[in-house]
Amino acid sequence: MAHLLLIDDDLAILPDQVRHAFPPPAHLLTLAGTGAEGVERLRASPPDVVLLDLRLPDLSGLEVYAQIRAFDARIPVIFVTMAKTADTAIEAMKLGAFNYLYKPLDPAELRRVVAEALEVARRMRSAVVLNASGTDDEIDGGDAVLSGSCPAMLEVYKAIGRVAAQDTTVLITGESGTGKELVARGIYQHSARANAPFLALNCAAIPESLLESELFGHEKGAFTGADRRRIGKFEQCAGGTILLDEIGDMPLPLQAKILRLLQEQTFERVGGSETVRANVRIIAATHRDLKGWAAAERFRADLYYRLGIFTIDLPPLRERCDDLPMLANQFVRRFGKELGRSVHHIAPEAMEQLKAYAWPGNIRELQSVIKQALLKSSGDVLLAAFLPPLAPTSSPPTSAPREDGALSGLEGFIRSQLSKETTDYYAQMHRHVDKILLSVVLDFTCGHYGQAARILGISRQTLRIKLRALGVHVTHAIETDEDTATN
Q1: Which of 107, 137, 256, 429, by CA, is between 20 and 30 Å from 320?
Q2: Do residue 181 and residue 290 come from a single domain?
Q3: pLDDT of 162-185, one tens digit each?
Q4: Judgement on whether residues 355 and 444 belong to the same structural domain of the protein
Q5: pLDDT classification of 457: cutoffs 50, 70, 90
Q6: What is the model's pTM?
């Protein structure tokens, strides 16, 4: 149950609007008509999110916010104001408030902003369990469990312990779905900034034109549509920790500003000249080979060296063979409870299929497969028949095919299709090669759109557009939450 605290002297209309947007029993709404009452209720029962009016009969909103932040800086506070030019609300954002809304409240915007705040609160408060033993004693943390006892994972746990207390930049590398955000949250929760905010930002999910403003904020009139000053994540997260996920997809010009922030702890908002001091710890994560990208000038080498002072590399699931049975059984028990299934263990044949698969989507894909199987299951044993189709890992060839032979075969095919009457042969060949290329890559990733797009170096949306244009049909497509969220 999500707990919301509304501190506002307008108890006639606003509470009904919030209740309508966040109805019980999934949400609990607590009301307070004065600042003092709100602080008292917050201390008695800390909420997940606070909605705070700027003008209260006894205290100003900023005074109440200061008391909330002194009690627990991790509680997201959303200011509510009547004034469209609320400089006070902007000042509150500079001090670390989550966001602010205008009265009368727009229901859609209220739901969006509060839902984002609840997710941020969940990530900060959901303790990450480093579970090397694989026992059930510690798997109640839901998705916030980093499990595994293989040597590579034991090194990850040691690395978290070594760097957490050091207020330094950390770079987390590894394929998508390996748990990079869990490592970042584990570092945050064991650091001296654990009582300050934690924000995670996916650099690949935000349009390039908006990313700089999202991080650094902007001044009024900085660009078309900038009708007021905006405070960016680095100011919002003052004193805390920010995760820049998929930093390898950050545009090169923006990387220069990140480098300056790391070196000087200062930055300017977009369209502004005021120098803002930043007190924030940066953790970066990527599935890219930043060293290779830096050599190819696709990522700033100086930023790579600055980020890579301490690097934690997460192994892919296919290299954690000893961990797979433990992880699969954990997910069966955890998701079985969520889905109301009484499955207690996995049949040997089903486990062999899981072991034979390459897992291009890593832990995230394993979770998805287990959930699909549980939904089909009956009885207390997860049978192989309940699993979705999984292509077994093929043995690598003993030697690579000769390049000249491959080129010779391709040249022969091109010549066989060549005709003097053709006038668009270049487009025809590109279409034919694209069709083969996309089909082969998707077959290699077993239909995983996100993995295929990463291998090809294109966006998922571009991949889907090309598939539709070429008429390529994927019989077994895998789309994770990350895939659908970035369409």
Answers
A1: 137
A2: yes
A3: 999 999 999 999 999 999 999 999
A4: no
A5: confident
A6: 0.72
Q: If you search the block for the tokens 């917050």, which residue do you land on?
A: 42
Q: Is there a domain that residue 295 lies in?
A: yes
Domain count of the fold of the chain: 4
CATH code of the domain in which 330 resides? 1.10.8.60
- 393 domain-assigned: no
Same domain membership, residue 345 and residue 274: no
The answer to whether residue 453 sits within a structural domain is yes
pLDDT digits (tens, 9 = 90+) for 24-71: 888 999 999 999 999 999 999 999 999 999 889 999 889 999 999 999
Domain interval for residue 480: 420-485
Residues 160, 274 within the same domain: yes
